[in-house]
Amino acid sequence: MPEPSRKRNRNAEPQDLETLMGNKPPQALDVEAAVLGAMLVEPATIDESMEELSASCFYDPHHRMIFEAMSELVNEHVSIDLVTVSEKLRSKGNLEIIGGPVVLAGLSQNIAAAAHIEYYIKILKQKTIQRDLITASYEILKQSFDESTNVDDLIDNAQTKVFAAIQNNVKRDVQDIGSIINEVLDNLQELQNITGPSGVPSGYPSIDRVTQGWQKSDLIILAARPSVGKTAFALNIARNAAVDANMPVAVFSLEMSADQLGKRLITTESGLSGEKIKGGVKLEPFEWIQLEDTLRRLAKAPLYIDDTPGIPIMEFRTKAKRLVKQKGVRLIVVDYLQLMQGPVELRGLREQEVAAISRTLKATAKELNIPIIALSQLSRNAVQRTGGTGKPQLSDLRESGSIEQDADMVIFIHRPDFVGMSDNPEDREKAYIVIAKHRNGEVCDIEMKYKASQVKFVEPDQSLDVYARQGPVASAVNEPLAGESQDHYNFDNQQDF
Fold it and tell me: 197-478: which CATH number, 3.10.20.30, 1.10.860.10, 3.40.50.300, 3.40.30.10?
């Protein structure tokens, strides 16, 4: 058989690796020949081989050419035999390269190969995975020596390449409906023992009744006009999951600093006014006690904040993977989508860039198997819509229709008084959580109240007296303690990210 061509192309990649690394990549040439021979003489082996194997599973470039010719014949609905394969190779100019008809005749002499085809296919897939891992490792090595490569991009690319090397060679078998039903029933039985939502709880019973919590692999878009309260609502959700349910949550804040988010969380948790937490109004001694007491649980909560401004989407993916692996994060919040940086090649093409960001967020949620809540801006259409109520619609999502397409849920925050659609004093705190898209459930409007002074959304019948519910030093709320020490607790739980 003639020496393989050294021409630089996809078929020569294994030989390139052999030259560069000094070792022959894993291969099984005899097994490759046996599979091709079985396909030539036994039609029953063709479908199984075509389903499980691809041209890259053959290390020998000549074997790869033969398999590609067979694949084309199958796609053309032409039977595979010595004559048809020879003619296909001749038409492609490859018949003489592989050694002529005599080589094909030699392959067809292995009559016993058909009986062991399943075992041979398994061997070829194993060798392919090994070679793909070597190729991925070599590419990672080259990028690691490149000083111009961003480290976060390098980490993400390394993880992606290794994962792809494995997944590309793992095929899901067709499942019969009986096995699927059994799996669903087993899962349903497990859910019977769970009290509360099956997903990450929002902390709002009226919302959890509709969503059953934020579900794994879902991308949830939370959108509203500026200053309506989407960041406040997202922080309420993050706080409820981390503090009340003790589920690790990560917040990527591209707009507000960690210090600003911390003050908002403290305001919500303590029940004190935002002006006092910002330092505009001096705290009384009893308020220090109230503050310190109510913040104990928040300080120990598994809540992680990254305030990198304009974070590139690939850096976000890398950090998200690390948080899930190292911290066990169950929910990620991104504030907000339009401030992220998309792929470099799409900079300046805003709609395409936002579309790429949206797709990557959904792919990340699916890959990590956790829900991601991404905040988004709305256009002015809802406010300017003639004769309307100001209630947002899916068409109001800003800059790209792919946001709606990629999302499993789209949630709007609508406050009639804020958009000037109501002069009724009773509507001053009224807010609606509008579930406008719900891939796996109902769409509806859920009434809430928004307490601006405490940057908190509550159920219509929910008390805001957070400190009174804590109870340990309730008497301190009613009377200032003369001479009370104002030394404060250290809330560092050493879980910084």
Answer: 3.40.50.300
